[in-house]
Specification:
- The protein is 43% helix and 17% strand.
- The radius of gyration is 13 Å and the shape is globular.
- Strands 1-2 form a two-stranded antiparallel ribbon.
- The mean pLDDT is 94.
- It has 81 residues and is of the alpha+beta class.
- The protein has three helices and two strands; from the N terminus they run E-H-H-H-E.
- The termini are close together.
Length: 81
């Protein structure tokens, strides 16, 4: 499955590889990217993992499309099932 994550162009950490360092840097920079994503993602416990993944990807795509500051980018990685 392809997983998508939101990050910023200036964050030196990869959230796939070191989420804690990525998150700490993101919050210290005042971006709160996770909160932004949480406000837009439409998910439910009733959705399958694949459906939740798609909801997350759709919300990230929306953030990237409306990226007026130019600071956001998406990164992807294949994660075996």
């Amino acid at each position: 499955m392809i997983k998508t994550m939101l990050t910023t162009i200036d964050n030196p950490h990869n959230p796939f590889d070191n989420f804690r360092a990525w998150y700490s840097w993101d919050v210290a920079a005042g971006y709160y990217s996770g909160n932004l994503l949480a406000n837009l993602v439409a998910t439910s416990y009733e959705l399958s993992e694949e459906q939740q993944n798609q909801a997350n990807t759709d919300a990230i795509e929306e953030i990237i499309k409306e990226n007026v500051t130019g600071k956001y980018k998406k990164i992807t990685r294949y994660i075996p099932d």
